[in-house]
Please model this.
Amino acid sequence: MNAWNTSLHDVYSNKRDKKADADIMLRGLGDQRILGSTWTAFFSSVRCPGNLILSAYDLAQRWRLENRPVVSGFHSPVEREVLNIMLRSQTPVCIVLARSIPTRVPKELRDAIDGGRLLVLSPFGATTKRATQETASRRNEVVAAIADRIVVVYAASGSKTEAFCRQLAGSGKTCLTFDDPKTENLKAAGFDPFLD
Model:
């Protein structure tokens, strides 16, 4: 499996709203052509209320049936389960890592990459072997830059995820969350309740 390099500017040269992300260089595995898809970013805090976890799983099942491309770091437990759901279909999926591209890719991911439906991306060079808080923040910025719309299941009040979501709400992109009392902080930040 050969890695390739690109910039978001090269990928999105026809999309006006992506010009600000021109300096983001990416290293990737998979069919580079699907990077130009219309992506939905998916985020969740590590700790997430049970009812929102179930809603997220239902949403992932719907996206899988709709063939909706999803991009995420797929790091939190909810995000990882959504990845498992999405990989059981032909839906394009993009994993953005908080470290360099690995030299060995797990078989289940390799099969999806070989099938042309999975991209593994990293904004980091070969020397960034481990994820840190800083690289996770950068990864999340890249996920948001790739996405055309953003869905956040849950952001704990006062968390780094919530602070990041406040930035996202001012990005001009469609930002959505579930209509639930536990997401009031996201709605107050400017996220719209999910309607579709």
In short: Helices lie at 8-11, 50-66, 77-86, 107-114, 133-146, 160-169, 184-189. The longest strand covers residues 25-29. The beta strands are 4-7, 25-29, 40-43, 70-72, 93-96, 118-122, 149-152, 174-177, 192-193. The chain has one domain: 4-155.
